[in-house]
Structure formats: C-alpha cells, structure tokens
Design the sequence.
C-alpha cells in the first residue's frame, strides 16, 4: 500500500511526516487521530482504513502515548525496525525539543499575555479536534449490536463518572470493550463450528 521502494527516500518521507506531526500537532494523541488518518490512509496510503482503526485501538490499549504508538507502527509496517526507529524519532524529537525550551522559559512564556491567550485558544481547538476524531471513527465503525452496546454503555459510564466525580479509570472501559469483543468472537466461532 503506497510503499516507496527506494529506501532512503521512504525513510526521509517517514521522518519528515512524523516531524511535521511532532512540531505542529497540538492536543496529544486523540486530537491527532483525524490528522493521522488523513495523512496515513487518505493521502499517503501507507495503511488501510481498517488497519488504521485496529492500530488506534491497540495504541490506546498499550502503554505509552497514542501518537508515538501509531507512528512507531506505521514506520515498522513500511520499513521494519529501522522504519519504526525513524518514525518514533521524528515524532518525539520536535516535541522533546519544544517541551525542553518551554520548560526553560515557562514563567516568561506564561507571563506574556499573547502566548497565554494562544494557549487558551489551543485548548478550545483541541476539544474540537478530539470530538472530530471521535465522530469520524464513529461513522466508520461497523454498526453491529455488540459495537453499539459497547458504545452506549461506555458513553453512559463516562458521563456518569464525570457527573458524579467517580474515581473509575478509563482502563475499566477498555477492558470492558475487550471482554465484549472476546465474547462476541467466541460466540461467532461456536456458531460457525455448528454450521
């Protein structure tokens, strides 16, 4: 899928693509999902949409930031270990550099009213980016009874947690979704075995 066979050119493409995300994608992994999908699936065709959905689910369920997990996977898919190393370096390098510089001058940054106002604007924009990614994924998932049940139960659970200030980790909801997925798989396997 869209693999450029000339080695160094593809490595450079991977690095520059991830560096662009590292410098300019604000709001963390969730806010970047829609940007990743556009770049990796629609524009560069490095992975399929189905593969992207699986990668996002795995990246969310494994330790580490979702953006790094997704970029590492894409790099690995395209060029193996070295591709994953180049992709991860490209994604992490700019963020590390920016955070290092901000940490040195944080008080001066926040004292500047223009920078402070810019960060407030970015916070509002991030809400939109995360909602946009969620809506996009929601439109594309298969509307099976199991998927809709997990969606509804998780949505109600997350709203209840927020409204009543409950201390329930999002890991509980991830494990719930995984358990439902395994149950559906086992039920389908038994049905196919009988057929």
Sequence:
């Amino acid at each position: 899928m869209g693999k450029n066979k000339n080695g160094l050119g593809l490595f450079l493409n991977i690095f520059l693509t991830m560096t662009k995300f590292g410098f300019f994608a604000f709001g963390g992994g969730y806010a970047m999902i829609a940007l990743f999908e556009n770049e990796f699936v629609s524009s560069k065709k490095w992975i399929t949409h189905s593969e992207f959905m699986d990668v996002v689910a795995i990246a969310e369920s494994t330790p580490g930031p979702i953006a790094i997990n997704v970029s590492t996977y894409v790099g690995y898919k395209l060029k193996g270990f070295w591709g994953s190393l180049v992709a991860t370096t490209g994604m992490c390098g700019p963020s590390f550099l920016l955070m290092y510089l901000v940490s040195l001058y944080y008080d001066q940054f926040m004292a500047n009213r223009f920078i402070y106002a810019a960060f407030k604007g970015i916070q509002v924009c991030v809400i939109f980016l995360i909602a946009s990614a969620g809506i996009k994924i929601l439109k594309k998932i298969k509307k099976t009874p199991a998927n809709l049940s997990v969606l509804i139960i998780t949505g109600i659970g997350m709203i209840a947690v927020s409204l009543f200030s409950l201390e329930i980790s999002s890991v509980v909801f991830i494990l719930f979704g995984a358990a439902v997925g395994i149950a559906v798989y086992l039920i389908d396997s038994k049905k196919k075995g009988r057929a």
